[in-house]
Amino acid sequence: MEPSERRQAVAMFQEGIQAGFPIILGYIPVAITFGVLAAQSGMSLIEITLMSALVYAGASQFMGVNMIAASAGMIEIVVATFVLNFRHFVMSLSFMNEVRDSFSFKGKLGLSLTLTDEVFAVSSIRNENIHKKHGIYFYLAIYIIAYLSWVFGSFLGGLLGEVIPEQLSQSMGIALYALFIGLLIPTVKKEIKFGFIAIFAMLINLIASQFLSSGWAIVLGTVVGGLSGVYLLKEKK
Questions:
Q1: Average pLDDT score over residue span 125-134
Q2: Fewest CB atoms within 10 A around its CB: which of 49, 111, 153, 191?
Q3: Consecutive H or E run containing 233
Q4: 47 Cβ partners below 8 Å, 6+ apart?
Q5: Is the pLDDT assigned to residue 179 strictly greater than 60?
């Protein structure tokens, strides 16, 4: 790479860091909360850090910790995580369709592996850099700092979980609900039917939990709630 091109790449990378800085501010507190709750659920510091590094899915990690604490089986946790994260297929396809003519296969593969809700939102808003030369470094910077902030926050939370009183850490569990509500409210403002879908899924989970384990109740509530959305959100012909 020529010196001038290297400077352009560095400039794009720095711009990506600036664009992704709000993600860091949002990720670290939630990741710390996850680490604290996971530590006090019996997970070791290595397990907590590896879970964030390999799974890298906030909502699913919170759900996984709760299911582990409830003694859910491995299959239940895997299926529930797959169902909850199925939206990532849609997000990846959407973003990869935008960059298909601009980035190499290796570049697209690397970006897709670290795509999250927040990263997808920022990348979609700042899509003017897709067709710029060395534009991939802009998105690479966003994805790297988001990933590192989540893993670091989880590691820090795992350390703090050993010193924070259990009474305080239990109250931090509200972060899970705040995370979901934060994702749900903007959508409900645009379309009230999403609110009905969420309520229906909760009712299914509540009813199913009377007959099934908590893990399968979550899976059933998620699947049935999602299928109800197919009916409620279909366009009128």
A1: 75
A2: 191
A3: none
A4: 38
A5: no
